[in-house]
Specification:
By secondary structure, this protein is an alpha+beta fold. The protein has five domains: 5-88, Phosphorylase Kinase, domain 1; 92-282 and 310-317, Transferase(Phosphotransferase) domain 1 (Transferase(Phosphotransferase), domain 1, Orthogonal Bundle), CATH 1.10.510; 341-401, Trypsin Inhibitor V, Chain A (2-Layer Sandwich); 406-468, Trypsin Inhibitor V, Chain A (2-Layer Sandwich); 473-547, Trypsin Inhibitor V, Chain A (2-Layer Sandwich). Helix content is 30%, strand content 23%. The strands form nine sheets. It has a six-stranded antiparallel β-sheet, covered by helices on one side. It has a four-stranded mixed β-sheet with strand order 23-27-24-25. β3 (22-29) and β4 (35-41) form a beta hairpin. The radius of gyration is 38 Å and the shape is elongated. The chain starts with a strand and ends with a helix.
Length: 572
Amino acid sequence: MIGKVLDNRYELVEFIGKGGMALVYRAIDKRTGHNVAVKILRPEYNQDAEFCTRFDREAVAASKMSHHNIVNLLDVGQDDNMRYIVMEYVRGRTLKEVIQQNGPLKPAVAAQVAIRVLSALQHAHKNGIIHRDIKPQNILVHSDGLIKVGDFGIARVVGSNTISTDDIVMGSVHYFSPEQAKGEPVTEASDLYSVGVVLYEMLTGKPPFDGETPVAIAMQHVGGKAQPIREIDPTIPPALERVVEKAMEKRPERRYQNALAMAQDLQRAMQEPDGAWMGPPVQPDPTVPEQPFVNTGHVKPVHSNSWLWTRIGVVAAMLAVLAGLVYGGYQIYDQVINVTSAPYCQDETEAEALRLINRAGLLYEITRISDAKVPTGYVIMQSPEFGTAMRKNETVFLTISTGPEEQEIPSIIGYTVEEARDELERLGFTLLALPERMLSTSAWDTVMKQIPEAGEMQPSGSVVQVKLSGGSVTLPDFTGMTRQEALFLIQQLQLNILEIREIPVDDSSQYERVAAQLFTNDDSTVSYAVGDQVMQHTMVTLAVYVSNEPETPVPIVETAQETAVPEEELSQ
């Protein structure tokens, strides 16, 4: 499929992954040049009405939403019986990969990730969409720290009929709710249960329930009790544990009833971690069914202003959550995106090692030593060692072999001084540029001569002396040119001005014109004549005619004499 162009627009350039019913590719939108993600229905399902409907439903669900924490839909199409959905391309990792690679997240980071997922679900639920498959594999962590919820492949529009009995219980067994496990209808609370499970895994590094078969795991969701989070890690704040427990209540009515309420509790849990504000833990009693609230008339009617205060409270809470999102974005970037590990550089060439280090977002420092067993230009050792956890922009220290103690001097004639220095340092030699330059048509700073010569065997660390080109300039006659014309030509020829002497003259037609010039070397011990071939940066002294008339004095305007401040006052 790589190289195929869908509808003359989307060129598939890289296979990203696959899901239960679709293959996902990174593609280039030939109209815009942007990267996009193209999800293509698997060929074996093209004639399956149920999977086609399910695939179309994802497009319908995505089209109802536009949110910064949701992977946005860009296009839907069909090419040669190939159904596809075009989504924005998120460069980064899944939350599952982050947990597998980095282990449990810090509580503050886990809470902020969950808040962003809840923000996405609040938007989806508001538009009548229940995701039904919230799991770390469907939560994308962008390289800039942005959290995106994707894969609405089994989402359900609230109130719509199911396709089949099997469709009701679809979802990922480690993360779906008890009602999904029992084949009962799902609600917004079902998604919030899954968020609780994901948050549990972010904090502990593992899902709350596991087993040998999917059925065994599903039954634990229905009747099992997860190991308390603080038994696994006592440093996790009690309030955060309580939020997870409430989200994972077996009965939907005992859970959070909307995503905003859970996000608000997460925000408060990080500000008041002891959890006292949540009251005593509610002990479930399955033998006593909860009774719905019935107004018997003993409850006082709500004051007319209560509606306004309720709305104000909701707005204030939303603003508090929004403020937390800003801070949380930095936390996610610093603790998740900004984390990397030292690549394996041992025995790699210098170029390959630097490529690996750059790809990991790290910096490097190089030390070169002689080693008779390791070829020139290969990594002898690195620090820190492979796999060490690091933050981006930290430094990996490499030791590069310069080969055996004695080796052949390379030819560097014709190199620029910087190119010659790099080549010599790569082999373990040191460059010394002699102060005397050579007259040459070659560019300034080109190596014209080297000592020792190429091919000689020298110990590692030896000094190679070089003479550099001083360039070549034919000295012009500046006489009669204006000052500005002469200065411009001097700059173009890469000569240097030593001095400009001004000669008074009565003839106004000669004002600002060059009367004479003098060419000398740096220490003025040698002079040159017009037409001589000299090196660049030769010194030029100009004599320029100026007006012989004295300058008109500026009149002095007398002002009132100021009163002097006594010295003793100034010292105070």
